[in-house]
Specification:
Radius of gyration: 20 Å
Shape: globular
Largest sheet: 4 strands, parallel
Order of helices and strands: HEHHHHHEHEHEHEHEEEHEHHEHHH
Strand order of the largest sheet: 1-2-3-4
Distance between the termini: 6 Å
Helix content: 40-55%
Strand content: 5-15%
């Protein structure tokens, strides 16, 4: 598509409608909220004021190791163990996203991690849904429209996959839009409990699977073929199944294996691209965990140029000190992205949302396209 050039300042980017598919509820708390909730339950934190605590989370997460990165969640999960705390965190997450221009979001979280003070699994889902609904209503009062669904997650290292899958399915009419597995990826593949994917497929329930972040293409292959995932959480390491021309690293728009000066795709990469399986890419987080060396060198740009179904996401706003506006601005500054690029990944995400086709169509036609047209001043 061709549009007029528009100056992509941070304020302009913030005004754009955004869709985030990969954002962890327990990775997006406000530091001030953590302090207040920790005081209520007597949990010891590594810092005593909001600014210092926010800095600690970012520094601890910036280790180059997914395992170390995940350790930061010990503190956020510890303060999310009551209905009031879960509802507050969910409400604030919705408001923070809406104020950043997000119009559709999926919040993923693991109910099994929030039972330390006696809650049942169902009570945790109810509390989060209550907070989401409060946040949506408060955002509307501020003149902002946002729709938010829950992605219920099972922890890979635990053995509650069936129970959590049943919880997700049971709450289809209570705000839950999909199922995920998360946590330590390497060594805990989808085949750990292979029967769960048949269960979900038989119930026509959407699945996204964390894969291709701490483990390589084999992890993505299992997620796609065994897990029947409709989307891949991260998927950044699909590039390991692509051979790039060292002499012409950027000459591959819409390329295929065998073309001169382009990129040669392996069979898995072809499969993911041919089937347009969305990749939930998270540049800042991927740099922190060592899945990418920098935002400028992040594979998201190459994958987008190769016509993969790329979406842009925050992952954990607290740990990465980021927002959707920030992720977009970083790609504009360091990878040369244009407003067309931002529009493309936003529409990819909207078309990949875990809602029905007519709802996706309305999101694109009534919200995404008009929002970008207003900024661009030209027809997309």
């Amino acid at each position: 598509m061709t549009t007029e050039n528009a100056p992509l300042t941070v304020d302009v980017i913030r005004s754009l409608p955004k869709v985030v598919l990969h954002d962890h509820l327990d990775g997006g708390l406000r530091p001030a909220t953590i302090l207040e909730l920790a005081a209520d339950v007597g949990h010891q934190l590594p810092a005593g004021d909001a600014e210092a605590l926010g800095a600690w989370f970012a520094e601890a997460a910036d280790s180059g190791s997914l395992v170390r990165y995940l350790e930061t969640f010990d503190h956020t999960i510890a303060v999310m163990q009551t209905p009031a705390a879960l509802a507050r965190v969910a409400r604030e997450a919705v408001l923070d996203l809406a104020r950043d221009g997000v119009v559709y979001a999926e919040q993923r979280w693991a109910p099994e991690q929030h039972l330390q003070r006696g809650l049942t699994l169902q009570e945790t889902v109810d509390a989060v849904q209550s907070g989401i609904e409060q946040g949506v209503a408060e955002a509307a009062a501020e003149g902002r429209t946002i729709r938010v669904g829950q992605l219920v997650t099972a922890m890979r290292h635990a053995d509650r996959w069936q129970e959590i899958a049943e919880l997700a399915v049971a709450n289809r009419a209570n705000g839950v839009v999909g199922f995920d597995i998360a946590g330590a990826e390497d060594g805990f593949p989808p085949s750990r409990h292979a029967e769960i994917w048949r269960y979900l497929a038989d119930r026509n329930f959407p699945v996204t699977i964390h894969a291709g972040e701490a483990a390589g293409p084999e992890s993505i292959a299992e997620a796609v073929h065994l897990g029947q995932a409709s989307r891949i959480g991260h998927g950044v390491r699909i590039v390991e199944d692509i051979t790039f021309d060292a002499e012409h690293p950027h000459r591959f728009p819409h390329s295929a294996e065998g073309e001169s000066g382009t990129a040669a795709l392996g069979l898995l990469a072809h499969w993911v691209r041919d089937h347009q399986i969305p990749l939930e890419l998270c540049p800042s987080s991927n740099v922190q965990t060592g899945a990418a060396t920098s935002v400028a060198a992040h594979p998201i740009t190459r994958l987008k140029e190769l016509d993969f179904a790329v979406t842009l996401n925050t992952d954990n706003r607290l740990m990465s000190r980021t927002t959707m506006t920030q992720e977009m601005a970083l790609l504009v500054e360091h990878a040369g992205w244009t407003i067309d690029d931002l529009a493309d990944v936003t529409m990819n995400a909207a078309w990949s949302a875990f809602v029905h086709h007519d709802e996706r169509r309305a999101l694109v036609d009534d919200v995404i396209l008009p929002g970008y047209q207003e900024v661009q001043g030209a027809q997309l």
